Amino acid sequence: MIRVLVADDHPVVREGLITMLELEDDIEVVARAADGEEAVMMARREHPDITLLDVQMPVLDGIEALRRIRADDPEARVIVLTTYRNEDYIFPSLRAGARGYLLKDSSREELAGAIRAVAAGESLLDPEMVDAARDDAGLTAREFEVLRLMADGHNNAQIATALFVSENTVKTHVSNIFAKLDCRDRAAAVLQAWKRHLI
Amino acid sequence: MIRVLVADDHPVVREGLITMLELEDDIEVVARAADGEEAVMMARREHPDITLLDVQMPVLDGIEALRRIRADDPEARVIVLTTYRNEDYIFPSLRAGARGYLLKDSSREELAGAIRAVAAGESLLDPEMVDAARDDAGLTAREFEVLRLMADGHNNAQIATALFVSENTVKTHVSNIFAKLDCRDRAAAVLQAWKRHLI
DNA sequence: TCCGCCATCACCCGTTGGGGTGATCTTCTT
DNA sequence: AAGAAGATCACCCCAACGGGTGATGGCGGA
Fold it and tell me: Is the pTM of this model over 0.85?
């Protein structure tokens, strides 16, 4: 029997997860939590085999809760759940010790499969998330730096100063970014980049 | 007995909603749908008292599904659900005939209460959503139009043409937008607006 | 070894953007 | 009736932007 702790601040999602997991013969939900702090407490008390952790939670967010749970018990196996196709959380989650990373619109099969896989010692990333993380739009590392500075409202001269290059170089990068993102101006490029989670 | 149709593309959320609603003595889930088209079909077949509709769904989004359901049956009572505190959907939803607008992190009590209220003929908006709808950053209706066109990559001349005003007028609006969003260029303004769900 | 990608820079060009100031007209509120 | 707020437009100005073309090293894969 795989003992699972479910932590999610949305009652609907929490109940949905529990309902789906209870349908599995080899999975048992032993505790639930509605915020990060509660999740840390319940993990400490119940020592579940698997903790399902929502990234976005009040009081203490998922990543920080994950860190504390792993600090309490370095053997703890945590699967991070997210609603958003936002890969920003992947690397922080993995660095904090997550063994799985799933989207909330996973099916019951995927969810149960992930729990069994992680309980068995494997690590599991949602394929869609891995794809998302790979959507770099063909931008180079340098172009990403320029893009981020653009998004912060810096003009070409400021970007040049920040990166210790000439303004001409920056303009070249900016033009290349436009071409790759299929935009004609920085406003569209920055928004595009944000929507595609590039920044 | 209030007969309810639940439409949500996320299996977890769908099951969560159904589980929570089945706990209520006076509510019965008579059908479920995983996308907008299915929702329209099920509504046509079952004629539920209340339809719970997720805004973000594949094939046919919630708003469009809502329009078709109401076209089939102008008496249909639909409650729109959303994960995001994005007020953009409020007005389109209401215009399309929604009788309720709730966030997915509503509690069982709020959800059941909303269903009973709408079934009884009232309309119900999530108070938090109403607050969110008020974060307009002090922008006027005209400034919103300009902002949206800016975000689509249009320049001042194009915006002027689209709104049937002079370019000078557009420039004035753009300057006012910058002041209100505390930005110095369109790239930052557009990103800012996106982050704050203004567009 | 050679080709391609990347980062760097230069120069030219016309267009656009953003700031400032001031004015008129309508509408709504007080 | 007075005042505030919004929408409209004009004129000036200079800096910034975006496009095009071309060139030079460096580095890595074929």
Answer: no
